[in-house]
């Protein structure tokens, strides 16, 4: 394996990881921001208040984006195996 191959594989791995995790992270961020605004408005300072809504948002994100995430991951794995087979 050449150095270029390893660097290319590492770059593609990081990009795929970011693409797969982005919808869930964004959903968690939006829900967390909404809960923070609610807490600031109502002056409720309970740090555990965000856990359940974030978990629900992430589960909904998995339901909505799960097939796309799995297809993207399978595509990446297939490409990686094909490229490894060339060596």
Detailed description of the structure:
With 87 residues, the chain is mainly alpha-helical. It has one domain (3-85). Helix content is 86%, strand content 0%.
Please provide a brief summary of the model.
With 87 residues, the chain is an all-alpha fold. Helix content is 86%, strand content 0%.
Describe the secondary structure blueprint for this structure.
Blueprint: H1 3-42, H2 51-85
Q: Spans of 5+ residues with little confidence (pLDDT < 50)? A: none
Give the beta-strand count.
Answer: 0
Radius of gyration: 19 Å
How many domains comprise the coordinates?
Answer: 1
Distance between the termini: 7 Å
Structural class computed from helices and strand pairing: mainly alpha
Question: Which percent range fits the helix content?
Answer: over 70%
Mean pLDDT: 93
- Strand percentage lies at under 5%
Give the H and E element order: HH
Instruction: Estimate the global geometry from the Cα principal axes.
Output: elongated
Question: What is the number of helical segments per DSSP (H or I, 4+ residues)?
Answer: 2
Task: Please give the largest β-sheet.
Answer: none
Structural descriptors:
single chain; 87 residues; mainly alpha
């Amino acid at each position: 394996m050449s150095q270029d191959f390893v660097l290319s594989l590492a770059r593609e791995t990081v990009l795929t990881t970011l693409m797969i995790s982005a919808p869930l992270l964004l959903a968690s961020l939006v829900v967390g921001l909404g809960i923070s605004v609610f807490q600031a408005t109502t002056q409720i300072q309970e740090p555990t208040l965000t856990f359940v809504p974030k978990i629900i948002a992430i589960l909904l994100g998995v339901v909505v984006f799960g097939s796309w995430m799995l297809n993207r991951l399978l595509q990446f794995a297939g490409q990686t195996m094909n490229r490894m087979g060339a060596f």
